[in-house]
Specification:
The complex is a heterodimer of chains A (423) and B (286). With 423 residues, chain A is of the alpha/beta class. Chain A has 2 domains: 155 residues, Periplasmic binding protein-like II (D-Maltodextrin-Binding Protein, domain 2, 3-Layer(aba) Sandwich), CATH 3.40.190; 215 residues, D-Maltodextrin-Binding Protein, domain 2. In chain A, the strands form 4 sheets. In chain A, strands 2-1-3-13-6 form a 5-stranded mixed sheet. In chain A, α9 crosses α10. Chain B has a single domain, classed as Orthogonal Bundle (MetI-like fold), CATH 1.10.3720.10. In chain B, β1 and β2 form a beta hairpin.
Chain lengths: 423, 286
Amino acid sequence: MKRTTVGAFALVAGLAMPQAALAETEITVWSWNIGASSLAIDMPSFKEAHPDVTVVVEDLGVQQVFDRMLAACAAGGAGLPDVVSVQNRRAEVFWSQFPDCFADLEPLGFDDAMKAQFAPFKLPELQANERTYAMPWDSGPVVMFYRRDYYENAGVDPASIVTWDDFIYAGLKVQEANDGVTMTQSSINGDPEFFEMIANENGCSYFSDDATAITLDAPACAEALDVVRKMDAADLITDGGWTEKIQSTVAGTVATHMYGGWYEGTIRTNAEDQSGLWGVFAMPSISEGGARAANFGGSALAIAANSENTEIAFEFLKHKLARPDSQVNMLMQYGLVPSLTTALDTDFVQQPQEFWGGQAVWADILKTLPVIKPSRGTPFYGDATAIMSAVQIKYLNGGYDSATDAVADAAQQLSLATGLPVE
Amino acid sequence: MRRNRHAYFFLFPFLAVFATFWLWPIVNAFYISFFATRTQPWVFRPEANWGRLLVDPAFANALQNTLILMVIQVPLMIALATLLAVMLNSPLLRARGLMRFAFFAPVVVSEVAYAAVFRLMFNTDFGVINKLLGSIGLPELDWFSSPTAAMAVIIMAVTWRWVGYNAIIILAGLQSIPQDVYEAARLDGVSKRQQFIHITVPLLRPVIVFCTVLSIIGSLQLFVEPFLITNRGGPGGATETLGLFIYRQGFGVFNFGYASAVAFTLALLAATLSVLNIWAARERTA
């Protein structure tokens, strides 16, 4: 009996001791992939200013962060870390359903002067209920990442690809000249990402800018969906999501990836041995002379309302996101495009990149930023993607007479799901 | 009365837990199914969810998928399980214990692990199934991109996991059939096949009904396989079951009112099917 008591006491003391030694503050952050990696760099300078603060970044995966944030908010905030990463287009559902789950950053110091330093299209999705819930991080100007050698084998000059019809024609040649290579990759059977990018380029989106109406039933959206069908009909798309795209990049089985600028770091860090083989060109447009820019992806950081360290967490946000040095570092190391506009005037942007065959890719990617038309995620983005992916696969399998019918049906379904009128 | 009071005193811990964690959530879910829960604050509007159920193509799709799975997978699996049980019961079989365990083992494997293995096996470019198809000259399939193929994968996976479990239950039923019935049949010159059709199957009927009821309930609740193997009911909702649909409405797009309405519809469906089963079983015993 006596021995157990002593043992238990020692155990309690043993547990208590490291905690006493770590009387300093610990900030926990949830994030994913290269985002998590980029949050973990640049820490010495933060440590200098806040010697008693330790930052722990947990790399959970994008869907896992969303699921766990939701479960935590539904449970009144229990189990949330201090800081969470949130994708812009999926952010509003949190503010609308759980207005008190995340801290208002304005009283913590996110004032108008600081807001003005960020790209204006990032903010509407992060504000609701007269509060600002998150600080913009990166944005996703869409470009085409392509394999120079595969295009050369087929005698295709990327500069000659201006419209989507050009792209399809080039794709047939690339596939013929390179055995076992597919022109591009997307999980078109489960994800409307290609549709969303091309629709955004073509000036069409699921919802109106003020999130009060559905604007999907429009010719511009039908045109975008039809481009996806044409690519699929020409067998230019192999099926695959995030993981498969990385696999095919490493294996060299796909000639082109269409994604946000942040994919630069993913290609470069996963396929180091392919240095010099990759290049970038602008999105093709639907018609000659049309827009050749879109935004896909981009994230922000929010602070849990129940965090005991909201002020220090805000210092961390400022350190990572509101300083040009830090944002440029994330751009250089991981290819995350700053939404802090002052970070874009750096020499690095104009430099030719060795991995990209000497192309100054950042100059090419960032020059699309001013042309991008913002597309609002709204609290109903989850409904929109689910409905659109079902409609897309039905359309690709011949379930609608025309793309116009397909988007009209999708708009009706979305109206039913959200209660918003079709415009 | 006095005795009852004591009884309730001792039952109190259970009743309290039951009321808190079972009764209250059920009542509360029914209550919020009448509210439009798309945005805060929630407002009382029964037609927002119950009305939507009637016209929602996504709900109709999930219901249809669930019923297709049930109608194809359950009979297929029960038939296979019965055959398997007869073979496991054969006196010719060696290493009987090992065999029985081998067929039962899939139930013991964690759902997540087996889902990952199935996903790999059916991978378009690197999967063993496509390699096999290719080696015998058949065309390779994009298993997770075609709605029909994806549904077939789910059916195969669920069948693989549960067929052994049902076979073991049916085996127990087989062993309770008295041997003298077969002996009499043999003396009368009844062939093996006729013995199976006219003796084994009729005498097994109660066990098979039991397995069918369990499997129907299981298929109504199907969640893990379409969530993990076909990536959340893909392609484009082609394998989205009612369980997955409820999850997506509740925890994907935060529409808890609609999720509750669908959940109660599913419960109603399960109750109806159970009553039908009981009625069918009673008919035969009478």
